[in-house]
Amino acid sequence: PHSEAAGEVDGAGSRLATVIEVRAQDAPGLLHRIGRALEGADVRVRSAHVSTLGANAVDTLYVTRPDGSLLPDEEAIDLARALESALR
User: Which of 19, 20, 25, 28 is nearest to 5 (CA)?
Assistant: First the structure.
């Protein structure tokens, strides 16, 4: 379990997609767990930037609804929380 996982919505990050930054301890299967959480949320990933800084991973996800629109604030926050849960 990775208790230090955190998901944060960056409301000013992009006009074309909702930006969610996920920080967690790097571990085998981390991206797989992120992918499963995204699949369950029914979103499209426009872009993903994956970085590993020492023992920590910082993944920045640019996501939209399936129709290409931005996620409403509440939906984006729910997705960030779902990503946190998936990484714990």
Answer: 25
The model carries a pTM of: 0.88
pLDDT along the chain (88 residues), means of 10: 76 89 94 94 95 94 96 96 93
Residue type (1 letter), 64: T
| 52, 60 Cβ separation under 8 angstroms | no
Per-domain boundaries in the chain: 6-86
The arrangement of strands across the sheet holding 56-64 comes to 6-10, 18-25, 56-64, 44-53
CATH 2.30.130.60 describes domain 6-86: no
